[in-house]
Every structure is written in C-alpha cells, then in structure tokens.
C-alpha cells in the first residue's frame, strides 16, 4: 500500500470557496455594470411630433420607436404628474384647437432620479436643435384627445419587440462574464467530483476482483476518511472470506480421518452390507475431494490479464471435439476483457461439459452486449423446470433422475461457474429455449 498522501482541503471548505467566489464575481459584475456602462437614455418626443401623429402624418424616426395613433373608449391612465405637465397639456390643446380638459397625459414613468439620464436627454435635445423652451415627453407615454363622440384618440409609441440597445448590452455583458467563469467552474467541479469518481470506480472494481489494490488516501478530508473506511472494509471482507473458506477446507480435510476408520470397520461386515457402505463412503470421499478442490480454487485467484474470450471458447470446443464430443462454436467478433485465464477456462469447460453430457451437444457463441462480454452455450437436452433455474447453482444440488451422480458429477460444477462469474463482476443464468434445450448465458463486464 502506498504511503498516505496529505489530504487536501475538506469538501465543505471547497464548496464554501466556490460559493464565495461566485458571489464575489457576481458583485464585481454588477459593480462594473453600474459604473462602466452608461445608463439607458429613454426616447423623448417633441409635442409637434405627437401632434403630427394625431393628425395622421406621423414622422419617420431612425433611432427612436415610431409613434402610432389608436382609438379607445376610455382615457389612458395613469395620469402623468409634474411641474411641466400642465404647460405641455396647454400647448397641445392650443395647437390642436381643443379644450385643455380634453387632453390627458398618461404614463408609468415618474420624475427622473438619475442626473446622468437627465444630462443625456438635454444633450440629445440640444443636438436635435431643440430650444430650451420647447416641450417634449419621455417614453413611455400616452397622449389622449377626447373625440366628439366621447371616445379617445391616443398617441403612443409602437410596441417594441426583442431587446433594446440597453438590454442587448446587459445580455452581452452577462454572456461574456459567464464565458469567463465557465473554466473556473469546470476546474472546481472536476476537482470536487474526481475523488468521488475514483471512489466509485474502486467500489466497482472490488465487486469484480476482491483482491483489488486498496484505494489511495487523497482528496478532501471527507473523501480520505471514506477511502480509509473502504480499505478497512475491504480487508475485513477478505479476512472473513478467507477464514470461512479455510474453516470449510479444514472441516472437509478432517472428515477424511473418520472415513478412513469407517473403512476399516466395515471390513468385518457381510459382503452385501459392506458393498453398500463402501459405496456411500466412496461418495462421501468424492464430495470431500470436490469440496477441497473448490475451496482451493476459491482462495487462489490467478492474476488478471487481458484475455481474448472468443479464442478461449474456440480452443475448448476444438479440444472436446477431438475426444468425440459434439461441440461447435459460431464465428463472431473478438471480445477482450481482463480476467483470470485459468478460472475462465474452467468456467467455459464446465458449461460445455454439462451441455454435452445432458443435452447431447454444445453450440457456443461469444459476442459483446453494451459493456459486457457474453458467452452463450446451447444444448438439445430436456431443459430444467423454471423452479430449478437458481437451485442448480447451489453446491451439491443434483436434479433427479437425469442429473445424478451416475450420469456424472456431484453438484459442484455450476456452483463453480457462478463463483467464477461473480468473482469477475458478472453472473450466469440458465433458461429454457423456445425450440427445446437449455441455454447457459454468462455475462462478464469489459
């Protein structure tokens, strides 16, 4: 195990740093927006331009919104207030030749509170050639004139679609700020997520290989604590499995002594009874030998190396065919995975032998399904009841009468297959094929 690395700042500190940095950046953006960008200068319109629009000949503008005239039943609202409003009403009433009471000025804008906006309007008015005595209204506004039929003719600016210049500048400013903050956010996010991703990969690797190397203690202090607990858990699991496996092996080994004594004691029995007892003792010794082999194989896992699974299956089928077994393999894609070559060879060999023994012949295929390598072996046997598709993987379980000791095996073959498959992070299943026969399917993660 590598020497523990000094943990970095805790996850809480890093999150607080990221949050604080985001807030400071937002404040800096708002401050720069307030002091660097000029305030929006609202459009203003002379009373003469408003009167022309009322008479049906609106002027043409290049930088301001056009004016429009509409007719409605009620006067516009809310009413505008201010020291210049009475003079503007009187001027419009005089120019249009109507009573002042028939003129209504409405709008939602109050008095200007920003002196810079006022200066900008005065500068624009001066550049437009307006005198200081000339009256104007600032958008948005509505000028209502009562008609003889009691309805109101209203002059207002046409509705604006999309973003105005000020909104476009603000949107561009925020877009540029977000673009500048994206690399910083990405670095922080990667820094925070990488230890968690490594932790998840280590947990997934432990499921495939119980003897995987321990996780390095690095990253935030919370992640380092979790990694240390994970490593301790992995060690405890390994010791637990080794202790239980050693205990089973010791029990199986110690049973040989009383079995040997029983063999000597049955020598004095009649021939008929001695044959029956000897047959039972032979079966018990065979089970003990198989148990010892199973325990030995489970405790001595080989080194994981890259393995081309298709070639392994083809070589086993060829070897069995040379001995007279009916085996064939479909030509398919090459699938490479990390695994224990000897263990996977035993897994495939057990399934092929079962297919030949109980189904007459074996047809194998290897292919890739998403992120798994799949081995399927079909036979032409009678299949098994759905209730036994899981029980057959239990150690020493033998179905009667077709799969008993006389037809071969003591019930550990499929248990070994599942142990090897799950030791590689995969699994094995048995299903009855629609056309008859059994299909064994092994899935191993790539």
Unreliable runs:
1-7, 110-115, 401-406
| Sheet with the most strands: spatial strand order | 8-10-11-13-12
Mean pLDDT: 77
Q: How far from one another are the termini?
A: 26 Å
Return the string of H and E elements.
HEHEHEHEEEHHHHEHEEHEEHEE
* Sheet with most strands: 5 strands, mixed
Task: Work out the helicity level.
Answer: 40-55%
- CATH classification, class level of the largest domain: Alpha Beta
Roughly how many Å is the radius of gyration? 44 Å
Total count of helical runs of at least 4 residues: 11
Number of domains: 3
Indicate the CATH architecture of the largest domain: 2-Layer Sandwich
Count all strands and give the number.
13
**Overall geometry:** elongated
In percent terms, what proportion of residues is strand? 15-25%
CATH level 3 topology of the largest domain: Heat Shock Protein 90
Question: What assembly state would you assign to the polypeptide chains in this entry?
Answer: single chain
Question: Considering the protein shown, what is the CATH homologous superfamily of the largest domain?
Answer: Histidine kinase-like ATPase, C-terminal domain
Q: Quickly give the structural class.
A: alpha+beta
